[in-house]
């Protein structure tokens, strides 16, 4: 892996969220340091100050940088000399707290890596975007599945025209873990994700529908013109959707579909995408991430595999592999690849170089805003029986 | 395989259609006789009398029963003594001719096995249904995929309540062969299928969307309450849809989706169904027909396989296997299983027993009418931008 | 499918074996007539004359040609005028009876399609070969798996040099059905297969090891120089092997392995072959017969699929498909393809044309002898602790 | 993940090997710290002192602990106060140097994590074992594939008797990367691996055959009684084997086979194992590591999947998962799991607790010795035409 080059030191990370019982905080902490390009040096690991401090040893965060709140974190880190101060803050808290944390971090001049969805609602997202645009920070959003080498291969192929014009995109993201009212049993992950005061206006579509949408956007580069959506709550008494289906119309007449479910028995984390173009078609499945199937009429189907040394590997594929082919890379590595791309920008910023803010390889704040717009339009459309609503947000990346 | 029991002879079949260049006629002829329960003894193999007669030797049909038209076939067969006369007529012609042939056959008292979709339009289908209801004939429609042993296993499991309440049904039927304007090259299969004067009001959705719909209906037993559809014609200049997506609402709040494509590069004949219930979920893929995946949260995923001797094999599964497990059965056998179920009824009729006409194991004229209703509602919905239309036809089987 | 051309009639088949409780007889009867090129007109369906006659109606064999023994069959058929007389006899009886039946048939001038293994022991096989060589009959042996279109594709590719020099061949044939002493429960299939007086000197290796060997021979065209084998009987009290492993040395230094098992829990009929060449490598699995994986370093893996119209389909692949791609063909069709190739030769014989007897597309009596030699050498080698024995039989086809 | 408990600090790691151009050193460095239980603080990254020091920044090793040789490393680390001194040394150098480095480390009292195969030859391994037995160090060998959660599940099931008596074990480890003389092109990985002065007496069988053997040993717990092997060098001019096949006899009459190849086109890193027991059978494939297939006659095949929360997850499976099911874990995580198990023992040692040295969850020095014995017997057997040699080493773990 590339080191941090001109920066000549590791980037310093602070983690907000991730205290005991959390899931995604640990993932951020592990993925960010996977390549030895960053070190976790500070944290505000819980909104409960006592728990925040108790959790610090789990992450090897020294006591004096184990803060009781994100506010304390920002204040105290700003007070440190620049040579010790953190470079970025990773926000791994429930959705409803992203905005205030991320906004404060940006305003303090820290780079941010924020979990998805970006904020609690669209208004917050648009407000946050303004703040980011008024700053010079690097702002990444962890739509982590775009970090898979073969997702990047697919994108390179599609943007390079190999599939021709794209006419159908079908994305499924199927899980089964909310088939029962797990949230009634005090399971932390399900509790906040099914609570509209914490998760926002959408449940399943906010949590995983946004990943599905973002994956399609990333791989094809196409912005849908309009969207129609039907959300369902199949588990009685649950306050948010646990299933949904959206239809997308593209300018070229193409049709997209997104199905997301959290009530499909036995489905683990089954994110699956199929893309049909006039010249070729492909499919990729997150649970089998090291291969991708490419098809053309009249030719044998082709299985592309993760292989940094293969002649067929596109630049963005080859660049984000850590091991030779056949040595399975998965969830953590893909997550780490989002960090790596953001690190490159952070280093450019830190060393005074100019850096791309819109068309980044990593999902950024524009993608985050578009994700919130997606949620908003889906919920609005669904509430009105699936009415078509525009999907082109003025701030969507081109 | 069971023999023809009380009938104590083979059933006598006539084939209409299937002349040189045809595809499905040969399939009918082979599948029907697979178990030695029927013999092809007569035919009107083409609408062109000369070609009809020329094609007869390909099917080993004797010259004196190689008729120049279906009318001649019916007239001459009726004139034969009952001990020689055909028992049933298989209709394997382009869609626009099904009605007149089937109607004449029924009115003459012959059993009918008709290819799908049932007729050119819904009015014809409803008219034909009346004729059938006024008769005593057995009338089967070859939605052949329901003849797969594991499709029947799935149905037995679902109707038996093993999956609980069904909340999501997702069907995809993907092909790639019409990715180019094959119809301009004089290829017979594509020519009539893309011609609205022969195929009817729908292309892709008439040809394969109906199979997808029927499969969902057969496996779940559920009738959708309403439907919304978007059809597309991606190949410029083509007159009928070559892609489409329909959304189904069920009474219980469940949601169904049907995607059919003929423009997906490299997809051969990929009919795939996933069904989510409150207790379990399953998936089955036509191109891998001898297995079915069943999932329940917290348990290993289970691969059911075709095996007439397995303790887990449901009665309708076990009854339609011809070989032990691991001896791949496929398209022809499933097609043959539709015939077998229809044969059972024909024998009951011939031997004077009463027989079920509505809730049959084989797809019947009611299913055919519902298929035409599906096409009609899809096209109408699509023409009005995907408006929701009712999907419960008064004649749909319960 | 091609018709019988110059012969201008169906071939007439007699079946020996196949009475009630049998498995492979029905397969012969169905596969042989799949393309309407033959008709089953006579039979001696059981060694028990009463049962033989009782079983005839199951096959629609008229009473006057339902014979009580193969001897009667041959005698009476010879007495019929040539225009009615059978063309060939299919031998679908337990192994120990093949020799006398096949020999008598050949001596009477009838073509023969004999199940495998060819005979009870090698001496019989060599004797039978002499008889066949002294005759003008067509003699096929149903190593049915070589009838799969993609097996023939693989062979065409290998013999055409596309894989380069072959250095490793690995074949597995795994079943689980004899995991328990099924033979003690009166199950007919297991009873004779585990009885050395009926099955011959080998059990598992005679029944399925020979298929595995033949498949490797057919696909690669290479004759092993020597063989070392270890047979096992894992089920206590069983008299014949139910598991075994053989190692093959080829002249070019290449190594082959054959593993056959009837005691592998849950394995249905899992015949699997992998072939490594200097230029490319492939694998094919009988339970997924419509695809084959081909690999070359540095290129995406390629999935070849059964498709008579694909540009990549080799002549022998395209010629034996009955339906377009995606319409699963399986066990019966492959079995039927053995018959088709034999029919072509029978027609050549019947119409007085010369025909190939050694390098046939269908497995022939030379392959049958080689199969018996394989069994003999395996058992001998195993009895002596795996000693290496020569594997080139003087009569092996080149 | 569990933290370091009573130790209350990270373990301190030194890496020997891993300089620029290396592969496995980086893997050790990443896997060891994946859970924040250890930190890489020192290294002797190359046998070339200048290169060793140049490579240090890539690993974030401070200059003062970037040593020019392993001897310097040991000497200088011993001179540090115990509170700073490394806890263990990871040996990630070519095979011929393992012995001297590991021996010196053990003699200095450092724990060791050594790459496989353990040493250059068996004599060294046995000598090293004596040294380890005379010490109190933890000594792990990175047969990393045993760190996969489902490999441990399989072992738990087998040792718990769920599969009954094991009768057949089949392991394949197929790669294609040495299909050409890559070593002639100066590629570092291939150069030493094909050089008998660095790799030892075996090539393919030393590099990956040992993994295959160890996997079978770990999963079944069974020691083969004797072994017969055939090694091949298919690439002309290569000095070591690039392909081989070994046959194993077990005391209970069971048969094992190991096939390893580095010349199979397009095979990436395909380690695959099948195990047949009297009650059940399973298979696991390294390239699809998050699932395992379990089969029993008469039941649907079962796909076990990695899921720490599943009721079916065995203790050793659940304990080594980092993420929920469906979040692919792969090569690095499995490698890290070897470290984790070794860490537990290192902590026990460091805190004065007693700890298991023979029957460890991690592969240990006894497994390393057995691996060298395996290589030795394979090469000896192969040189004598596959003669059977004993496989029970007196020091093999029971």
Overview of the molecule:
Four copies of one chain form a homotetramer. Chain A is an alpha/beta fold. Chain A folds into two domains: 155 residues, Rossmann fold, CATH 3.40.50; 202 residues, 2-Layer Sandwich (Dihydrodipicolinate Reductase, domain 2). In chain A, 32% of the residues lie in helices and 20% in strands. Chain A has twelve helices and 14 strands. In chain A, the strands form two sheets. Chain A has a nine-stranded mixed sheet. A five-stranded parallel sheet of chain A has the order 2-1-3-4-5, with helices on both faces. In chain A, a hairpin with a 5-residue loop joins strand 11 and strand 12. In chain A, helix 1 crosses helix 11, helix 4 runs parallel beside helix 5 and helix 9 crosses helix 12. The longest helix of chain A has 20 residues. Chains B and C meet through helix 1 and helix 11 of B and helix 1 and helix 11 of C. Strand 13 of chain A pairs antiparallel with strand 13 of chain C.
Report the top-level CATH class of the largest domain in chain A.
Alpha Beta
Into which percent range does the helicity of residues of chain A fall?
25-40%
Task: Tell me, briefly, the overall form of chain A.
Answer: globular
CATH topology of the largest domain in chain A: Dihydrodipicolinate Reductase, domain 2
Radius of gyration over C-alpha positions of chain A, nearest whole angstrom = 20 Å
> How many structural domains of chain A?
2
Q: What share of the residues of chain A does DSSP label as strand, in percent? A: 15-25%
CATH architecture of the largest domain in chain A: 2-Layer Sandwich
Mean pLDDT of chain A: 96
Low-confidence stretches of chain A: none
The N- to C-terminal Cα distance of chain A equals: 30 Å
Number of strands of chain A: 14
In quaternary terms, these chains amount to homotetramer
Structural class of chain A: alpha/beta
Major sheet description of chain A: 9 strands, mixed
- For CATH, the homologous superfamily of the largest domain in chain A is named as Dihydrodipicolinate Reductase, domain 2
GO molecular function (chains A, B, C, D): nucleotide binding; oxidoreductase activity
Pfam families (chains A, B, C, D): GFO_IDH_MocA, GFO_IDH_MocA_C3
Domain GFO/IDH/MocA-like oxidoreductase (chains A, B, C, D): 151-283
Keywords (chains A, B, C, D): Oxidoreductase
């Amino acid at each position: 892996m590339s080191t941090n080059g001109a920066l000549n030191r590791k980037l310093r990370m602070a983690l907000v969220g991730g205290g005991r019982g959390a899931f995604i905080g640990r993932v951020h902490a592990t993925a960010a340091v996977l390549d030895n390009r960053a070190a976790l040096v500070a944290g505000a690991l819980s909104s409960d100050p006592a728990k925040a401090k108790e959790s610090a040893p789990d992450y090897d965060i020294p006591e004096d940088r184990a803060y009781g709140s994100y506010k304390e974190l920002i204040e105290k880190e700003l007070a440190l000399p620049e040579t010790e101060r953190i470079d970025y803050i990773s926000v791994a808290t429930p959705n409803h707290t992203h905005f205030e944390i991320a906004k404060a971090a940006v305003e303090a001049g820290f780079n941010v890596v924020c979990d998805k969805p970006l904020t609690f609602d669209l208004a917050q997202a648009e407000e946050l975007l303004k703040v980011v645009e008024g700053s010079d920070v690097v702002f990444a959003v962890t739509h982590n599945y775009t970090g898979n080498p073969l997702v990047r291969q697919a994108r390179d192929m599609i943007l390079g025209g190999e599939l021709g014009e794209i006419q159908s995109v079908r994305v499924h993201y199927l899980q089964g873990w909310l088939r029962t009212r797990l949230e009634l049993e005090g399971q932390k992950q399900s509790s906040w994700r099914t609570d509209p005061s914490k998760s926002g206006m959408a449940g399943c579509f906010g949590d995983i529908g946004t990943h599905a949408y973002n994956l399609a956007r990333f791989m094809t580069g196409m912005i849908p013109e309009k969207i129609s959506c039907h959300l369902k709550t199949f588990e009685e008494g649950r306050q948010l959707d646990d299933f949904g289906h959206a239809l997308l119309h593209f300018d070229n007449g193409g049709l997209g579909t997104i199905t997301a479910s959290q009530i499909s028995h036995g489905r683990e984390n089954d994110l699956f995408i199929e893309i049909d173009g006039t010249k070729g078609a492909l499919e990729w499945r997150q649970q089998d991430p090291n291969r991708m199937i490419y098809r053309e009429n009249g030719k044998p189907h082709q299985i592309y595999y993760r292989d940094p040394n293969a002649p067929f590997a596109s630049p963005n594929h080859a660049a984000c592999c850590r091991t030779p082919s056949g040595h399975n890379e998965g969830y953590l590595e893909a997550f780490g690849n989002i960090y790596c791309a953001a690190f490159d920008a952070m280093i450019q910023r830190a060393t005074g170089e100019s850096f791309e803010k819109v068309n980044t390889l990593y999902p950024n704040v524009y993608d985050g805003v578009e994700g919130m717009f997606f949620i908003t339009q889906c919920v609005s459309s669904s509430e009105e029986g699936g009415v078509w609503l525009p999907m082109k947000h003025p701030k969507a990346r081109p």
